[in-house]
Amino acid sequence: MSKIIAVANQKGGVGKTTTAVNLSACLAAAGHRVLLVDLDPQGNATQGIGLDKNALSATIYDVLIGGRPLHEAIVPTGMELFDAVPTNRELAGAEIELINEEEREMRLRRALGEARDGYDYVFIDCPPSLSLLTVNGLVAAEQVLITLQCEYYALEGLSELLQTVIRVRDRLNPGLSVLGVALTMFQNTNLSRQVLDDVRNHLGNKVFNTVIPRNVTLSEAPSFGKPVIYYDMRSAGAQAYLALAQEVVGRG
Ligand code: ATP
Ligand code: MG
């Protein structure tokens, strides 16, 4: 059975895409079949795995809006066991185009349908909003992985996100649960340590033991279109995501 994990937080720049891309790559490298769905019109995940946003023959937009079967939008990433459904700016229009459609929250779930059977893990990289796109991600998923940046306002907005998860669970997707909270961009400062303590006090064992450090290699790798394990395997960022991937499997 495949496991579908939405990586979400309506806050921008908290490490969602970095986490979705690198967990996907680490799990594929460990022998799991992985599909990464880029559900953010920014297309950062698409670029981060080396796909050209301007040269896509089909995107998640064509699936959600055009009714195209998902398998037609799946592309190989060039990395073994690792496929993706890319996106580009066109997806930004989807919010408005879906607004009057019936069962608009169910589009991605329906589209994943049987296609999911070909994979052990499906990661959905959500945009920084609680919009219809994110709701589609949450309705399609079984679990949510929340990323929090180790900075002063880390917990801000978290209750809103958790309320959205509960609302989606109650109305549309009874199987939905929180897989875990990953802390990202940890620096060895008083502030980062304070945030870590606060978050652990609030969320207890929902927080992954692995904390992702702030690591320049993680921010460089996307410009080469590579997950960090294929850019610099020995970097602290690569080692952290390998450890986080093991925890994700362990929570399976
Ligand atoms: P958005 O909300 O815009 O989609 P996001 O939550 O997906 O953002 P990312 O794109 O993963 O966040 O990260 C934001 C920026 O921080 C990017 O430039 C990324 O390369 C960088 N970054 C992410 N994680 C780390 C890290 N652990 N160390 C250093 N830089 C990082
Ligand atoms: Mg992102």
Offer a concise description of the structure.
This protein is α/β, with parallel strands linked by helices and 252 residues long. The chain is built from 10 helices and 7 strands. It has one domain: P-loop containing nucleotide triphosphate hydrolases (Rossmann fold), CATH 3.40.50.
Q: Topology, please?
A:
Blueprint: E1 3-8, H1 16-29, E2 34-38, H2 44-48, H3 60-64, E3 75-76, E4 82-85, H4 94-98, H5 107-112, E5 121-125, H6 132-140, E6 143-149, H7 158-171, E7 177-184, H8 190-203, H9 216-220, H10 236-250
Parallel strand pairs: 1-5, 1-6, 2-4, 2-5, 6-7
Antiparallel strand pairs: 3-4
Helix pairs in contact: 1-10
Bound molecules: adenosine-5'-triphosphate (ATP) and magnesium ion.
Short descriptors:
10 helices; 7-stranded mixed β-sheet; 15% strand; binds magnesium ion; 252 residues; alpha/beta
Protein described:
The chain is an alpha/beta fold and 252 residues long. The chain has a single domain (3-250), classed as 3-Layer(aba) Sandwich (Rossmann fold), CATH 3.40.50.300. It is built from ten helices and seven strands. It has helices spanning 16-29, 44-48, 60-64, 94-98, 107-112, 132-140, 158-171, 190-203, 216-220, 236-250, and strands at 3-8, 34-38, 75-76, 82-85, 121-125, 143-149, 177-184. The chain has a seven-stranded mixed sheet, sandwiched between helices. The protein starts with a strand and ends with a helix. Bound molecules: adenosine-5'-triphosphate and magnesium ion (MG). Residues 16-17, 40, 44, 125 line the site of magnesium ion (MG).
